[in-house]
Amino acid sequence: MPTAIAVTSADLALPPHDERTLPAVVLQDIDRRPLERALADLQALVEQHGHVIVVCSQAAPVAVRRRLHTLRSLLESDRIALFCPDLPPLGLAVLARQLRQLASCDLSPGVLASAGRLLTHYIHSGALLNSVARLDRVPVGLTSHAKSWMPGSQFAVLAHPQPQLVKLGGPEATLNGPEFGTWMLVAKGQLPSDWVTTTLAPAWNVLGLRETPLPAESPDWWGTGKLIEFCSYLPDLSVLYQLVTSVRRGTCHWCGIDVIGDRCVFCSALPPVQESPRENRTPVA
Q1: Strand 164-167 relative to strand 155-160: parallel, antiparallel, unpaired?
Q2: pLDDT in tens, 54-78
Q3: Quick one: CATH architecture of 124-233?
Q4: Residue ranges of the domains in the chain?
Q5: Predicted TM-score (pTM) of this structure
């Protein structure tokens, strides 16, 4: 069985992008289920798939993240990877789907888990907001905070890969987009606007555009429910596979699994520090 890609809520399990995309395992209400039951379910998942990669939002309730770490500790397993990248919820859902696409390929669990960090660099994730007064995940200046209290104000915010914030109000207001062909996914909250689809998408030269319901954790992440969240991404499995397989692979010195990058996602071990050889010195008589 291929490596399982798990998410903590159903709205993070986006519909398949192609026929090879594997379904996501939804760990729904994992913090509310009895500990013994949640433990048995996760153990069965590991036994069935061999390895499990859990993609979790940093906006997820503390109880959810604490329960995941508790379960992994109780199972004493290096076959469970907890991956919580600094992406907004919609971008996280897109990343989880990309990992589900790659899970159908001949990638080892360690390389697949490591691919998550690599692919985040190719995701542009942001939102259109009515206010940035409660936005604490992107740097916001005092001027923008003051303008948030003006009726009708709207702000375009890019959270990843490089934070950017602009106040809408003129044709020059735009965000820095990707320099390669992408698709865009849009999730509309309680903000009536077509700026993302009619202005931003053409400016970014997106190759296709789709809509999806707003993830439940998005209002908490962005500090307001009056938003439109968007994310541009690479949709093609062949491109994703080429990106991952073009990176040099290594072996985790701790658990022995194949990885790309400098950290094993399963055991969290870093490469050992290489000490420089000491210079040969002739003792002074």
Answers
A1: antiparallel
A2: 999 988 999 999 999 999 999 888 8
A3: 2-Layer Sandwich (3.30)
A4: 4-106, 124-233
A5: 0.89
